[in-house]
Design goal:
Blueprint: H1 2-11, H2 13-23, E1 28-36, E2 42-47, E3 59-61, H3 68-80, E4 82-96, E5 99-111, E6 120-126, H4 137-151
Length: 152
């Protein structure tokens, strides 16, 4: 699996998107979750297919016929072992030509932490005032929106 991740990172940028384009529906819908535990800490992942040192929200793509909320619940369960409930839709982004992204605020309700080693290198909870460097910039904006809304 490390070879596949190495090759994916080697492709970089537009070649990654072209490959995703060939492998997926022609209009892709992404979902991401700002997932908080009972202490108010946020769940972040280091994904095998991201650049080393990058942290991000649990996320994935919606399958044909799947509801946004169900897709996020599936992705979170597959990547982390957690079951979650959605509190609210935080934000949507549709500035991309053929992609739409939805961000949700979520809470863990059950499950045993268990990462999918094919996709995830590490998962960790962070205090909202102690986020790691390397958080994807586009997702940092979303996390900051949640911080401002809840604590601003």
């Amino acid at each position: 699996m490390d070879v596949l991740a190495w090759f994916w990172r080697l492709l970089a940028g537009r070649w990654q998107w072209r490959l995703l384009w060939l492998m997926n529906a022609k209009f892709m819908i992404g979902v991401s979750g700002v997932i908080l535990n009972e202490d108010g800490h946020i769940l972040l992942l280091r994904h095998r297919f991201w650049k080393p040192g990058t942290w991000g929200l649990p996320s994935g793509y919606v399958h044909k016929g799947e509801q946004l909320e169900a897709a996020l619940a599936r992705e979170v369960r597959e990547e982390t072992g957690y079951h979650m409930t959605i509190d609210s839709l935080i934000h949507t982004v549709s500035g991309y030509r053929l992609r739409f992204e939805a961000y949700f605020l979520d809470r863990i309700v059950s499950g045993t932490p268990c990462i999918d080693p094919r996709e995830v290198i590490e998962m960790r909870f962070f205090a909202l005032d102690d986020l790691p460097s390397g958080l994807l910039p586009s997702q940092r904006v979303i996390v900051d929106m949640v911080i401002d809304e809840q604590y601003g």
